[in-house]
Structures are given as C-alpha cells and as structure tokens.
Design brief:
Blueprint lengths: L4 E8 L22 H6 L10 E10 L6 H15 L4 E7 L5 H12 L4 E5 L12 H12 L6 E6 L2 E4 L4 E2 L8 E2 L7 E4 L2 E4 L30 E5 L7 H8 L4 E6 L7 H12 L3 E6 L15 E2 L5 H13 L3
Parallel strand pairs: 1-2, 1-3, 3-4, 4-5, 11-12, 12-13, 13-14
Antiparallel strand pairs: 5-6, 6-9, 7-8, 9-10
The protein binds aspartic acid (ASP).
C-alpha cells in the first residue's frame, strides 16, 4: 500500500524555541530550531507510516505574524494540497496568533484536505517539551481518512479554525473552542471525533469571504483596527483612526456587543463617513446576537481578532 504523504511546514514559535536553561519555560527565544531538525528529533514519526516532507516557510515568534507571511503560507499550503499524493499539511506555529492564521487559511483556502496547525507552550529544550507529542497528534489528524478543513491540535484536543482561541497564558492545554466545543480528541494516536470537520461556507451574509479571489491577498491589505468598549470608553480613538484613514473597525463590545453611548456615537459617525464597522464581543464565550434595529453588523460569531481578518478580506473582495 502506498504510504500517505504529509507535508510539515515550519513557521517558528515556542515549539521551535530554545532556552539556555532546560528548567526555564519563560526566558526562552522562540523560532530557533529549523523544521527539519524538529522532525528529525522525533523518531516516533516514522512509526506513523506516513511519508513526511518538511519545509520552512518562516521562522518567527508568532506575535510578529504579518500578512506577507500569511500570503507565503497560504501559497505553500495550496501548492502542497494540489499534489494528488499529499494527504494533508501540518503547520508548526506559535500559540499567540495561531487562531488568526487558522481562520485566515480556512477563509481563503477552504481546503478539501486537512490542514492542521500545531504548537507548544514549552520550548524544544524544556525538560518535558510538549511540542513533540503535539506534532505526532497533528500528523495523526492530517493523515486521518476523511479529514478536511483547517484545524488546530494542542494537548490532545482538536479545535476547528472558526472557534479555536488561546485562553491561557501558561498551561499546556492553552486553547478552547468556547461553547462550540472541540472537534474531537487525539488519544494514543487515534481520533475520537465529536463534530464535523470545518467546511464551507465559513461565513455567510455580509462577511461572505470564502470566494475571495486568491490573488487578492497579494494586494496591500485594507487597514482594519480593533477598539474596545469598557467603563469610561469614549469616541476619541475612533475619531483619530477615522481621521487617519482607517477602512474598517471591529469593536469588541461588552456583553452582547453593547457600547458606551459616546463610543457608539463616534462609531456611527465613522460608519456614516464610509468606515465599515463590525460589532463583536469581548466575552470569551457566546456570540453577539443580532436584533432588529441594530445599527452595526455583528461579527457572526467571530472573536474580535478573527472578525478583523474577516473584515479585511471582505474589504478586499470585489464581489
Ligand atoms: N510567543 C510565542 C509565539 O507565539 C508563544 C508560543 O508559541 O507559545 O510564537
């Protein structure tokens, strides 16, 4: 039987990080070890029976993720998925912006094969690094028959691109899918699935973005910023951003997207001037539930950071 080919793309992160002291899981430098070296250090991957290829697409701390790297990554993922013999792609990534990259790739590629992001909370040189097991689990997901769409695997939990969110600063199980729940679990190399794989449409209505021309992401991206509602919020940041030419604003509202009246007035004025405004919530769970008479579009369940990516793509979409 022909073995399954899995491509592992490296982008950096703590999973590729090193520290001078193996006991130091804070004072390390992310993105130091190349993907080939990471894969070579994991002989257990050979036992998966998959043929593995690796490629370094970037080498960064994911706090520094930018659209140029997203563009390169999307192109390499699309390239590899187009090869018949490739069953799936695994991407090693920092945890900090993993959810944004996952959402972006799902939105622009809507892949019919699995694309699995994985990461680590401890550097590669730690006494007990979590990266190796996460990579093994990600390969198990990427080689699963029938798997499709963009997912993230961390600490044995499989999350879908739409819902995954980093919720903890330190613990190994740092991600949650909120009240949507995870897609499933990886247990001793086997998958226990709870939900369907992510698939199109990723969004509908005002933020329908899955049909965006792939090449559009090559152009300069529209400027979209995030503002937040909080006690004592006012409209000054919004007015400054509008005066500075911002094209879109995502507001992380309180509760069900509620806004201080001064912030709301400034956002309404910006919207009248042509700035696209989307209302999300700063709550970790739940979504903004639209209601008759709403003056701002809601984020259709997306967190503020994902709503920002969606709005940038929507502003690029000629449709
Ligand atoms: N700052 C790191 C990164 O996002 C954190 C991590 O990977 O856990 O690249």
């Amino acid at each position: 039987m022909k073995s399954k080919k899995i491509v592992i793309l490296g982008t950096g992160g703590t999973i590729a990080g090193t520290a001078a002291d193996a006991g130091d899981s804070l004072g390390y430098t992310a993105a130091q070890v190349g993907i080939e070296q990471l894969v070579a250090a994991l002989p257990a991957l050979a036992a998966t029976g998959c043929e593995l290829l690796s490629e370094q697409v970037a080498q960064i701390d994911s706090k520094d993720m930018d659209v140029a790297i997203w563009h390169a990554l999307a192109r390499r993922v699309a390239h590899w998925l187009a090869q018949d013999e490739v069953q799936g792609v695994v991407i090693t990534h920092g945890t900090d912006t993993l959810e944004e990259t996952a959402f972006f790739l799902q939105a622009v590629l809507d892949p019919a094969k699995p694309v699995v992001l994985t990461c680590a909370m401890r550097p590669a040189t730690a006494l007990a690094p979590d990266g190796p097991q996460n990579v093994l689990d990600a390969v198990a997901v990427a080689s699963q028959a029938g798997a499709r769409g963009v997912a993230a695997v961390c600490a044995g939990v499989i999350h879908g691109a739409m819902d995954v969110q980093k919720v903890h600063t330190y613990r190994l199980d740092a991600f949650s899918s909120g009240d949507a729940g995870p897609l499933g679990y990886v247990e001793a190399g086997r998958l226990r699935l709870l939900r369907n794989w992510p698939s199109a449409p990723v969004l509908n209505g005002v933020l329908a973005i899955k049909n965006i021309a792939f090449d559009a992401i090559h152009r300069p991206w529209p400027r979209v910023e995030i503002v937040m509602n909080h006690a004592g919020a006012d409209g000054r940041a919004v007015r400054a951003l509008a005066a500075d030419g911002v094209q879109g604003l995502v507001v992380a509202g309180t509760g069900n997207g509620t806004l201080h009246h001064a912030l709301e007035a400034a956002l309404l004025q910006a919207q009248t001037q042509g700035v696209r405004v989307v209302r999300a919530t700063r709550c970790l769970e739940g979504r903004v539930l639209p209601h008759a008479g709403d003056v701002f579009a809601d984020s259709q369940g997306l967190s503020p950071v994902k709503a920002r990516v969606a709005l940038m793509l929507a502003l690029m979409d000629p449709a």
